[in-house]
Amino acid sequence: MDKRRFVRYASSAKVRINKYTRILVLMRDISLYGCCLSYPDTQSASMIDLETDDEYTLEVFPEPEEIGAFSVNIKPRWTRIRGEMRETGCLIDRFPTEEDREKFTAYIKWQADRA
Known about the structure:
- The protein has one helix at 98-114, and strands at residues 9-17, 20-30, 34-40, 56-61, 70-82, 85-94.
- It is mostly beta strands.
- The protein has a 6-stranded antiparallel barrel with strand order 1-2-3-6-5-4.
- A hairpin with a 2-residue loop joins β1 (9-17) and β2.
């Protein structure tokens, strides 16, 4: 049985992490309160080191381009290696602007409507 209290939606949005501006990673899933990021565990990508409880800003480029990019502040909770990939589970902490919150809400609605 799934322990999560909130539905997580599969996502294929690209994400840029403020501290690592040259690298785009994949958002594997998203919910109202969290997300999971996935990136290769390779020499070039292993420079990504998301510290637990530090805050990062993600710039999210969602699949339906009409929603538009938005930012969200996250705090990593865990990282694990699965095969050749790293996964980091994050808590959504806040939104930099009200417009970011509105776009996030539109993205979650779009995900729920297609589920």
